[in-house]
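Many introductory courses stop at the sequence. We go one step further.
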Amino acid sequence: MAETERDLILSFRCPDRPGIVAAVSSALNAEGGDIRDAVSYGDEETSIFFVRMHLRLPAASEAAFRAALGRIARDMGLDWEMRDWRRKSRVLIAVSKFDHCLVDLLHRWKTGALNVEIPAVVSNHETTRDFVEWHGIPFHHLPVTEKTRARQEAALLGLIGELKIDLVVLARYMQVLSPEMCARLAGKCINIHHSFLPSFKGARPYHQAHARGVKLIGATAHYVTSDLDHGPIIEQDVRRVSHATSAREMIAIGREIEASVLARAVRWHTEHRIQLNGAKTVVFA
């Protein structure tokens, strides 16, 4: 791609009607741009049309194309965003003591499998400090109790603002965020949990599942809402186990699934492949 060209990701949603893609394509063509890749989905239940486009156009034409999109948005009700494809999302990871998801994310970041920046890792414990700082990432210890929760969350929000964070990833961060915090991070915070919920809540869920003879274990990545562990689902996976699978083996399998499911959710979000659709998501993976 020449320096005089821009690669952009255009995402939009709007009431479904004929001529939407044609209008956007015509405006793009008028500015000398073209579509490198495009995917769409029309939801028959809600009559909402979702689109993700990878565009290329002359850098000098971007402002004019944005203005054209503004006019189309007014005419057709588009809710749209357009981002520079080269800009890396800034991701803050929050973790407690279980580090398998953190380790996996940092490995993918280090090897380029996740095209992101990680300006900070936050934890309510010191357990992962050495590992995080070995990777050259600042580690912030923000302990929390019921009495200090409001103060701790204010410090976390301050850090998110200061570092210009685009996405917060709860990589087995074992704290429940307040409704106010969830509202501030709406659509910008991803959590991971085992897929036993709501059956096996609380401590030692894999031991509970083993005792009940569970045959499928898995994980769910979702956006965080004030409705605990019920936010819009992004990705899930499962693995079959048997009567011969021990609780320890279930834990190992579960951690592997949690790490891979979370990594896919983070990648899709940072590649702008996800759009919220009420209590659900549209994922152009």
